[in-house]
Amino acid sequence: MSSEIRTIGVLTSGGDAPGMNAAIRAVAREAMYHKVKVKGIKRGYRGLLNEEIFDMRSVDVSNIIQRGGTVLGTARCTEFKEEEVQQKAAEICRKHGIDGIVVIGGDGSYRGAQALARHGINTIGLPGTIDLDIACTDYTIGFDTAINTAMDAIDKVKDTSSSHERCSIIEVMGRHAGYIALWCGIANGAEDILLPEKYDYDEQKIVDHMVLNRRLGKKHHLIINAEGIGHSTSMARRIEAATGIETRATILGYMQRGGSPTCTDRYYASIMGAYAADILVAGKSNRVICYKDGKFVDYDIEEALSMTKSIPEYVYNVSQRI
Ligand code: ADP
Ligand code: F6P
């Protein structure tokens, strides 16, 4: 254990994700195991600037592992991009005796963590987002819960859709990334899967596909549309007019982001949270914890942010064929 790290802080930033509480708990408990004090910071970087900082005891993270959302609260704080605001945040950390911070969030939150590291506060990032759109890691906290929540909801819509012999367009979250749509599209047996990374805006292809399936005796036609494409309601109207098949749009929205985390999310978030505390206590800074090729690893934040990832080509092609 490095003698320099006596107190660490933990905050959640950006969109909440199920499993964030498991991560907070693991950060706190692992740091306490190392005899390091823990401070909870409420409402992300905004709460840090407002000094919403409290001493965290072991009991404060009891009975939270199964809860959705984040007990610390989260916020967006645009002014954190400003140099003098970052400087002020680092001074607030020093004032409260905080030597290091674990930031649970997405790419944007890592930029904030990087800024704090530049101003002398050790920082470690944890990937918290339901979108799976963080390039350096194969797993993000909340994705597994989100896809399972969406999958259950889509199954239900599919039942009513089949009963009425309708087409259903179901819009799932993912403003910039189609991972939720891809996984659910495959898992729910969708007829069409529309991803922002791949969609060619050729609605005629969808119309032809619907008409063919109807001719072959299919009672439903399920289209999973990612939020990044959007416009599900108007798409439903156009498709209904072109095919004569009743078509309804359902936008799942925030229900995908809430709820009790799955076992997978609790497990990964716990190990990653502990890993973050371990390396912070060991004196590392400006790192992000990832799960890559079957292993928990950490990368420099700049290196992590320069990585890219894309929809796996083979998986996408299979999704279109089956
Ligand atoms: P996410 O972390 O999920 O990607 P955002 O992009 O909204 O979500 O970022 C969350 C917060 O991180 C922002 O509200 C802001 O406080 C901080 N942040 C984002 N980008 C930067 C940046 N370039 N520099 C410093 N802080 C940033
Ligand atoms: O958490 C990720 C995400 O759900 C995206 O899919 C979506 O675009 C975004 O958050 C919306 O978040 P908010 O409505 O909080 O800005």
Concise summary:
42% of the residues lie in helices and 18% in strands. It is an alpha/beta fold. It folds into two domains: 7-142 and 261-306, Rossmann fold; 143-258, Rossmann fold (3-Layer(aba) Sandwich), CATH 3.40.50.
Task: Give the arrangement of secondary structure elements.
Elements: E1 7-12, H1 20-33, E2 37-41, H2 44-49, E3 53-55, H3 83-95, E4 100-105, H4 107-118, E5 122-127, H5 143-163, E6 167-172, H6 179-187, E7 192-194, H7 203-215, E8 221-226, H8 232-243, E9 247-251, H9 263-281, E10 287-292, E11 295-300, H10 301-306, H11 313-321
Parallel strand pairs: 1-2, 1-4, 4-5, 5-10, 6-8, 6-9, 7-8
Antiparallel strand pairs: 2-3, 10-11
Bound molecules: adenosine-5'-diphosphate and 6-O-phosphono-beta-D-fructofuranose (F6P).
Adenosine-5'-diphosphate is lined by residues 13-15, 45, 76-78, 80-81, 105-109, 111-112, 115, 129.
Describe this structure in words.
This protein has 322 residues and is α/β, with parallel strands linked by helices. It has two domains: 7-142 and 261-306, Rossmann fold (3-Layer(aba) Sandwich); 143-258, 3-Layer(aba) Sandwich (Rossmann fold). It is built from eleven helices and eleven strands. It has helices spanning 20-33, 44-49, 83-95, 107-118, 143-163, 179-187, 203-215, 232-243, 263-281, 301-306, 313-321; strands spanning 7-12, 37-41, 53-55, 100-105, 122-127, 167-172, 192-194, 221-226, 247-251, 287-292, 295-300. Strands 3-2-1-4-5-10-11 form a seven-stranded mixed sheet, sandwiched between helices. Strand 7, helix 7 (203-215) and strand 8 form a beta-alpha-beta unit. Helix 1 runs parallel beside helix 9, helix 5 packs across helix 6 (179-187) and helix 7 crosses helix 8. The mean pLDDT is 96.
